[in-house]
Amino acid sequence: MTSTLDVGASGGTTVEPEPVHGRQIALVDLLDRLLGVGVVLAGDVVISLAGVDLVQVRLHALISTIRSDMVEPR
Amino acid sequence: MTESGRYLYAIARGLDPSVLAGVPALAGGRLEVVEHRGLEAVVSTVDLEEYGEDGLRRNLEDLAWLEEVARGHDTVVQAVATHAPAAPLRLATICLDDDGVRERLDSSHDALEEVLDRVEGRREWSVKVFARPRPAPQQAVPQPTTGGGAAYLQRKKAESQAREADESSAAVVADEVHERLAVRSVAGRRLAPQDPRLTGRSETMLHNGAYLVEVDEGDAFAALVDELASAHPEVTVECHGPWPPYSFATLEQQ
């Protein structure tokens, strides 16, 4: 299961424009934007994204991964 | 019986719906365009079991779900933004039906037009500045021959002061990088630096910048980032893009 928010394919010190067809945005950057900035139109389903704490979400995911690892070797 | 809703990905202007053929929608759905007063909302049908208030509250805590939806949302936004000026919506913007979608296009019409004017022909670039990890202390501070507690504390204090000095000078560099890039772009903003527990990196993120750049200025912008990175080897500068204008699609009036 995925439990890391990858920082991007490359971690170089300089500019690394991504290939034209592979402009995949690192998940952490994408969530920064999709949860934090961007057009807010109040839909009919009302939910506060401001309450989504990514650090907590990630820690939960890590913990559940560790737990399932601990449970498996029975 | 399960109810369904309309998930909104982006608002565009002058979008030919046929360009969306073959672009996958969330939850195995099909992308559709709801048009109103010269604006197009790109939508697909989702199940409210999963995307209703209760479902979202539960699912937003699940990183695997969040990743799948964020990636799916981004795939659609990228496809739309390639063909028309597009204002990406926040994750999980959901209306009950197409009338609800039209209502939003109507009530925010002018503000949406303004956003589309602002982002048309432009892309977002991300530039981050990280503090370089301090090299392991060499013999700068004389090693005490006798490992006295006071000497140890003194050494620790000196190390900590040196690290603080490094970080504060790196913060000045980050400010300078931001200023130079902001001048070179249509707009620039500083997002909150990301938590190391999210980036998985030990270096402190000093700057998490987003810049709105004309499509044909992208190479020049990237070259400037490169130049700034070379001029400041004391920090790590990372640049990614071009992306859809996620950070610049904010409505001025609500």
Can you walk through the features of this model?
The complex is a heterodimer of chains A (about 70) and B (about 250). Chain A has one domain (about 1-75). In chain A, about 40% of the residues lie in helices and about 0% in strands. Chain A has helices at about 25-35, 55-70. Chain A has two helices and no strands. With about 70 residues, chain A is an all-alpha fold. Chain B is an alpha+beta fold and about 250 residues long. Chain B folds into two domains: about 5-120, no CATH class; about 120-250, Alpha-Beta Plaits. The model of chain B has no long low-confidence stretch (mean pLDDT about 90).
Taken in chain order, the helices and strands of chain B follow as EEEHHHEHHEHEHEHE
The profile of the biggest β sheet of chain A is:
none
- Low confidence ranges of chain A: 6-22
- The overall number of domains of chain B is 2
Task: Write a concise synopsis of the structure shown.
Chain A has 74 residues and is mainly alpha-helical.
Task: Compile the SSE list and pairings.
The complex is a heterodimer of chains A (74) and B (254).
Chain A: H1 27-36, H2 54-71
Chain B: E1 4-12, E2 32-36, E3 39-47, H1 48-51, H2 53-59, H3 63-83, E4 86-95, H4 98-107, H5 109-119, E5 122-131, H6 149-184, E6 187-191, H7 196-199, E7 205-214, H8 218-231, E8 235-243
Antiparallel strand pairs in B: 1-3, 1-4, 2-3, 5-7, 5-8, 6-7
